[in-house]
Design goal:
mainly alpha, elongated
Length: 202
C-alpha cells in the first residue's frame, strides 16, 4: 500500500475519533491503547508522558470550570461538576487515542516512507508555489535530528534543548523515496474521505 494512502487512512481514522459519540468513543480509545501497548509500547509511553501536563490541564479545566451539578455533594464548591467530568473524560480520551495513533504510525511506518507519503500528499501545494521536495526533505532532516539527538533523555531533560550545539554535525546523504500513487490508491482514498465527509455532514 502506498505510504500516502496509509497517511490518508490514518488521518481519516484520527478525524473519525473526534466525531464518535461517547458510547462508541470508550471502546475505540480502549482499542487504540491496546494496539499501542502491543505494537508500540515504548513509543506510546514516551508520547503519553510528554502530554501528561496537557491531559491534566484538560481534566482540571473541563471538570472544575464547567457549570453543572456537583459530582461531590458534600463539597459542591470544591469538587468537579458532573457535566464537566463527562466532558473531561471525552476530551482526554480523544487525546489519548490520537497520541496512541501517532505512536502506532511512527512505529510501523519507516521514516523514509513517512516522508515519502507526506511528499506525495503535499504535491498539490506546488500550484501555489510550495516545493514539495524541499518541504519533505526539511521534514526528514528535522525528524532525523530529533530521533538521533541525545537531548531530552536525562534529568532536567527540557533544559538540554536550550543549550548551544557544541558537537559537529556529521554530514550524511539524504535520499527521498518516491512511490507511485496508482489509481487504486486514489480510488480508495476518495472513497474513504467521501464516507468521512458524508458521516460528518449527516
Amino acid at each position: 500500500m502506498h505510504s500516502g494512502l496509509i497517511l490518508l487512512l490514518w488521518l481519516a481514522a484520527v478525524a473519525s475519533i473526534q466525531l464518535l459519540p461517547p458510547a462508541a468513543l470508550a471502546p475505540s480509545v480502549a482499542l487504540c491503547v491496546a494496539l499501542a501497548a502491543t505494537l508500540a509500547r515504548t513509543r506510546a509511553i514516551r508520547l503519553l508522558r510528554r502530554v501528561r501536563v496537557l491531559l491534566l490541564a484538560i481534566v482540571v479545566l473541563f471538570a472544575w470550570f464547567t457549570p453543572g451539578e456537583a459530582l461531590l455533594a458534600d463539597w459542591p464548591r470544591l469538587g468537579p461538576s458532573r457535566e464537566g467530568s463527562v466532558l473531561a473524560a471525552l476530551h482526554a480520551g480523544r487525546l489519548i487515542a490520537v497520541v496512541c495513533a501517532v505512536a502506532l504510525l511512527l512505529e510501523r511506518l519507516p521514516l523514509t516512507r513517512l516522508v515519502s507519503g507526506l511528499h506525495t500528499l503535499s504535491r498539490p501545494l506546488g500550484l501555489v508555489g510550495v516545493a514539495s521536495e524541499r518541504l519533505a526533505l526539511r521534514l526528514l532532516l528535522v525528524l532525523r535530528y530529533v530521533e538521533a539527538s541525545p537531548r531530552g533523555t536525562g534529568p532536567g531533560h527540557w533544559k538540554h534543548w536550550l543549550e548551544d550545539e557544541v558537537e559537529p554535525v556529521e554530514v550524511q546523504s539524504i535520499e527521498l523515496e518516491r512511490e507511485r500513487f496508482g489509481w487504486i490508491d486514489a480510488a480508495l482514498a476518495a472513497a474513504v474521505f467521501s464516507a468521512l465527509l458524508w458521516w460528518s455532514l449527516g
